[in-house]
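Long-time lurker, first post. I've been practising inverse folding by hand and with some scripts of my own, and I keep getting stuck on stretches where the structure tokens seem ambiguous. Below is the full token string for one chain I'm working on. Before anyone asks, I'm not after the true native sequence, just a reasonable design that respects the backbone. If someone could post their per-position residues I'd love to compare against what I wrote down in my notebook.
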């Protein structure tokens, strides 16, 4: 098996699973219980919270556990919008955000909010000048993702957040693809709200968090028992929280070595694929890019068919879109960077992890060259070129 879809999910590290197991069995207590059995679980929850806070250079009380990145995005956007509705009803985001952001903005639009979708350049970057011009007196929130899940472009977050701060607007970033993989300092960058999800960095699925800067009012998304300092109700997922804390520790410890290795493999693919296969292009920024992301379009080829053929050989990559299975719509991200439908439909996303090897990259390029050549034999447009 050759797994090359780390942007979709990662395997939980063995150390993470080992740390979680006791909290799925004998240490099952509710952390809100007053007796010692429960307070022991509470101590582990708070230890994980402190570990995550350290990684972001913030305070533990600014970390709120959620079920994952989608809930964190929903809560940040809806909660901030609701808390600021006396000031205004205008929200700014970009046209290439994850659907957890875009669909939440659509929901708010149906309730009377006005949404501005900033364009991006051909590399997928938001221009700080465009953000500055889009801010209005009634703007209450800006939400720009830290790094794009499809094309890997890393946004100039610190510049964008500084503009928001200067104009008195809350700034949220979906950092699901970037957190742990890149060093993030919320204090230096000026981020007010940040979403993350554990399964993107070798933690368990079903757990994530929202960072909320102290002093920011945000309405609860869930109501009930008042857990998470009365902001996010629901019995805490102790095993998931403990596992996420361990994954953060491991990720930070291994980050320098992992980044160097993954970046080398990424650069090899970015250089070799266009060299070996004609009529292809790499999408996204070549300078400001996630270490493990290679998004490539092959002309005269259907990306879904190529993915199917790779799947038959136990080589796992994904489409250029994170759409649900069977959705034939062209990716909104690829549309956003100006890619034609012909190029967009031939797109695959290859995302790497530290367990991959350079030998696997050499093999992948060889199989891509062979499979793309086979598929192009059935293309009338290719024969007419």
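-- Answer (accepted) --
I ran through it position by position. Result:
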């Amino acid at each position: 098996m050759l797994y090359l879809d780390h942007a979709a999910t990662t395997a939980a590290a063995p150390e993470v699973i080992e740390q979680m197991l006791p909290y799925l069995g004998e240490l099952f207590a509710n952390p809100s219980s007053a007796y010692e059995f429960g307070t022991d679980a509470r101590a582990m929850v708070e230890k994980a919270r402190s570990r995550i806070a350290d990684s972001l250079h913030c305070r533990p009380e600014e970390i709120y556990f959620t079920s994952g990145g989608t809930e964190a995005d929903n809560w940040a956007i809806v909660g901030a919008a609701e808390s600021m509705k006396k000031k205004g009803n205008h929200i700014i985001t970009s046209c290439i955000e994850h659907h957890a952001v875009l669909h939440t903005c659509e929901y708010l639009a149906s309730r009377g909010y006005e949404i501005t979708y900033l364009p991006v350049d051909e590399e997928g970057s938001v221009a700080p000048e465009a953000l500055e011009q889009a801010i209005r007196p009634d703007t209450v929130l800006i939400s720009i993702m830290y790094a794009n899940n499809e094309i890997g472009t890393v946004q100039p977050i610190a510049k964008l957040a500084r503009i928001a701060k200067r104009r008195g607007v809350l700034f949220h970033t979906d950092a699901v693809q970037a957190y742990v993989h890149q060093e993030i300092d919320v204090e230096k960058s000026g981020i007010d709200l940040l979403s993350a999800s554990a399964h993107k960095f070798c933690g368990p699925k079903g757990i994530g968090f929202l960072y909320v800067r102290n002093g920011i009012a945000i309405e609860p998304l869930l109501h009930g028992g008042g857990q998470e300092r009365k902001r996010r109700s629901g019995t805490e997922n102790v095993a998931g929280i403990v596992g996420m804390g361990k994954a953060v520790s491991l990720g930070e410890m291994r980050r320098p070595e992992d980044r160097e290795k993954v970046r080398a493999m990424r650069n090899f693919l970015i250089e070799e694929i266009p060299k070996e296969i004609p009529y292809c292009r790499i999408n996204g920024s070549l300078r400001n890019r996630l270490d493990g992301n290679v998004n490539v379009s092959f002309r005269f080829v259907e990306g879904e068919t190529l993915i199917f053929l790779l799947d038959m050989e136990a080589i796992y990559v994904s489409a250029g879109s994170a759409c649900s299975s069977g959705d034939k719509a062209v990716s909104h991200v690829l549309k956003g960077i100006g890619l034609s439908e012909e190029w967009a439909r031939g797109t695959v996303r290859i995302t790497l992890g530290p367990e991959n090897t350079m030998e696997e990259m050499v093999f992948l390029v060889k199989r891509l060259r062979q499979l793309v050549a086979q598929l192009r034999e059935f293309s009338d447009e290719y024969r007419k070129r």
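A couple of notes from the structure itself: The chain has 14 helices and 13 strands. Residues 255-384 form a domain with the Aspartate Aminotransferase, domain 1 fold (CATH 3.90.1150.10). Happy to go over any region you disagree with.
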